[in-house]
Amino acid sequence: MNWNKDGNSYTMMENGAIVQVSLPTMAKTPVVSADQLKMPATTGGGRFGGARYAFSADQQIVLLMNTHHREYHNTFYTAQVLDRTTGKVTAIGKGLKDGYLLNPELSPNGTKVAFVYDNNIYTQDVKTGAIARLTADGTDKKLNGWFDYTYSEELFCTDGISWSPDSKQVAYWQIDISKVKTLYMINNTDSNYAKLIPLPFAKPGEEMAAAKMGVVNVATKKTVWMKIAGLPSANYLTRMDWLPDGSQLIVQQLNRMQNESRLVLCNPFTGLSKVIYKENDDAWIDVKSFWNRGTAGWDWIENGKAFIWASEKDGWRHLYRIGLDGKETLLTPGSYDITGITGVDEAAGWLYFMASPDNATQRYLYRASLNGATGISRVSPASLPGTHSYTMSPNGKWAQHSFSSYQYLPASEWLSLPGNTPLTEAESIGKKLAPNPAAKTTSFFKVTTDEGIEMDGFMVKPANFDPKKKYPVIFTTYSEPFSTTVNDGAGIGGRRGGFFNVDSGYLFMAVEGRGAPAPKGRAWRKAIYRNLGWINANDQAGAAKKIIRWPFVDSTRIAVYGGSGGASTTMQLLFRYPEIYQTGLASSGVPSQFLYNNVYEERYMGLLPENKADYTRVSPVTYAKNLRGHLLIMHGTGDHNVHYQGEEVLLNELIRYNKQFMFMPYPNRTHGISEGEGTALHKTTLMANFLKQYCPPGGR
């Protein structure tokens, strides 16, 4: 779905064509026919697959992008431009290696396409097809217009170029990784001789990528570097956008500890800059993507004289109006968190956002006035408790509204705002609601630990549950800052882990502890600072300690499963709380905090070497010698996110203390262990058999 600028219509792919949908009638008008989207052989052939497309302002020029392949977080495209007036299709990057274009972007006036190729930035004239190289200093160590692994993984930076509103300049990141050490993965299976796979990867305390922000003039091909204070190798540039009038850039800069944020205005012609807004936190400051839809853009209001920004400075995540003079106005006062910006209806003076002041497992749409003069009001209907989401038009008048809860199957509708009024009653959520069959066996609960920490949890019981019997428990966990686990959605009652059937006789549970990004205030989320893996595991165990006393729980059959950060938590629980957990299944975990990427670890653990003792104290491998239960470890040898190296360090420690365990390496699989024929079935079968052997199902 691509919204048109006026906000009263959008375009989408349908039956191989691009159509425009007008609101509120939902009338569809063909924009680009399926025949027009058939690519001539001279442009690469085939049919446009709908990966990405973009229109010029007058909708006469269409940039069509087909995904060619992915490398880590980077998507490489083939691209064509369609002139709707003449019907002519022109290949982008003709003469360059096919399928290696990064971030193709149509200029606002529709005359040129900018893209990244071989570490440099190019433009191509839409009419003539002429290609011009705007930068010439790009190498495999100096990336113009795109990002290294950790910038894209942890700072969510994916598109490294941005056209100026007048189409005369391109702003871009330059990422210098010349001092970043190289990690090597090994592919042992695709040839007779092992192949090394290099990955520049900064670990905690090591040299990190150095970022600069440049603006290149399309006509002169000369770059002006933004003079942002601070060493590029000691700060991050996490977000950038043009002011709506194109007179300046705005850039967010974070220091290496990520506890100081500066918003900087930069003159694209001189490079001169000034800080207009500065914020500090005793722990860390989240990047904009944690509370804002998408990974690009800025939330401008008042024709670029101000913007919407989030801060936790008063103990809750709130939204503020920030003027270009740096003055702020609180827009969402109260003891609650916003979880994201949904949209702005500037004409009516409303800011829309998601929050859930009374139940951290749910999400609702709220609104507040843009001048901060009124309090907040809930827009989502009180008759639908659960999780709501909204895709809102740029003018704030329309939205696609989706709803689900553990009680109801997902449903969606189109509506008008601010009344939350369905465009057609027949297609409203109220008419579509259907009971979720899993609701009969699903329930939510709260549990309070001996430390006084109240946690949300859910439980799924077998269909034939007998309260007079005792059942084994399988806890699922993540417990780190990237996502929550206990959410009131339709899928929660159907979660079976993919490797066991709750109806065979398991209680399936999760509890949400501190450190998870639940809307429970800054103190809740940031309790784990310099305690990543420690506090969150303590909370999980504290809750389990209470749960195993429930009369229908068999305390001798307690299992825990997690992937990624959840695998790290699983290890912590097996090693540090063997009196509670007898069985653990850990997939792609981080056994040592010293071995993950510097952005993540230093954000939550502080810098090395001064915090070395904390890194050691919170690493699961430190406690491997305490293993008493049954542990299954799974990891892909080609995991470029959480490296296989960490598991080998853990295995050595377990072997050192003669701790018996089961280990399953998956050759060349990445973090999700999904690639390769038969992988999914093998992994689920392995885990199911492991559970049956060491945590047998059924009530007793």
Write the layout of secondary structure elements.
Blueprint lengths: L1 E2 L5 E6 L2 E6 L4 E6 L19 E4 L5 E11 L2 E10 L5 E4 L8 E6 L5 E6 L2 E6 L5 E3 L8 E3 L4 H6 L6 E3 L5 E8 L5 E6 L7 E6 L9 E8 L5 E3 L9 E8 L6 E7 L4 E7 L6 E8 L19 E2 L4 E6 L6 E6 L4 E3 L7 E8 L4 E6 L8 E6 L7 E2 L8 E6 L5 E8 L2 E9 L4 E2 L6 H4 L9 E7 L5 E7 L10 E6 L30 E6 L9 H4 L9 H13 L5 E11 L1 H12 L6 E5 L10 H8 L6 H7 L11 E7 L7 H13 L5 E5 L12 H16 L6
Parallel strand pairs: 38-39, 38-40, 40-41, 41-42, 42-43
Antiparallel strand pairs: 1-2, 2-3, 3-4, 5-6, 6-7, 7-8, 7-9, 9-10, 10-11, 11-12, 13-15, 14-15, 15-18, 16-17, 18-19, 20-21, 21-22, 22-23, 24-25, 25-26, 26-27, 28-29, 29-30, 30-31, 32-33, 33-34, 34-35, 36-37, 37-39
Helix pairs in contact: 4-5
What does this structure look like?
The protein is mainly β and 700 residues long. It folds into 4 domains: 1-133, no CATH class; 136-293, 8 Propeller (Methanol Dehydrogenase, Chain A), CATH 2.140.10.30; 299-435, 6 Propeller (Neuraminidase); 441-694, Alpha/Beta hydrolase fold, catalytic domain (Rossmann fold, 3-Layer(aba) Sandwich). It is 12% helix and 36% strand. It contains 9 helices and 43 strands. The strands form 9 sheets. Strands 5, 6, 7, 8, 9, 10, 11 and 12 form an 8-stranded antiparallel β-sheet that branches. Helix 4 (535-547) crosses helix 5. It starts with a strand and ends in a 6-residue tail after the last helix. Residues 56-405 form the Dipeptidylpeptidase IV N-terminal domain. Residues 503-694 form the Peptidase S9 prolyl oligopeptidase catalytic domain. One of its GO terms (biological process) is proteolysis.
